[in-house]
Amino acid sequence: MEENVRQDRRVRRTKRAIRNAFAELLSEKPYEEITVTDITELADINRKTFYNYYAGVYEVVAEIEDSIIASLDDALCNVDLNTAIQNPQIIFERIAEIIHSDLDFYGHLLRMKGNDGLIVKMAELLKARLRDVLSDQIGLSCEKLDVLLDFEVYGMIGAYRNWFIAGTDQSIEVLSEEVGILIFQGIAGFLAGRDPA
Does pTM top 0.70 for this prediction? Predict the structure, then answer.
């Protein structure tokens, strides 16, 4: 039993090293240029070890995206979105918790160049969840609701992405609070809480 636990830990540690190496490489060059050799060198493992877990780079990408989307979906499922519409901070606290659980890893992913597949998947999941709640609560046509959700969701993702790229001293919690205010109270709500000059 103890041997299995040690082996499971080793597998998780190795796969994490592979995923982290891949994410770091994404922040440096386009997905199409990343090779198994690049990943194994950065992760400090041999190619045989890599191929024990993945058939190629595309499987690393698929696993990372599936894992992130599952975490995000799980977090959103645990939030009563009808309540969250009245107190939107709940949604952003959940997103901040996910990102904060591995800031370095998510930082590399959000700084990536050239491959926006993950961003699109995240946005589509968020839009679908919010569409389910908002379509019953606000009287907008499907077309107007789509415009609203595109604006809000891609704006939110852009704010998180820029936070990682800029590397500011602002905490992820403060960022999440500000994004929540912008999305649910608009620019006027955001400006009402601005820092005094």
Answer: no
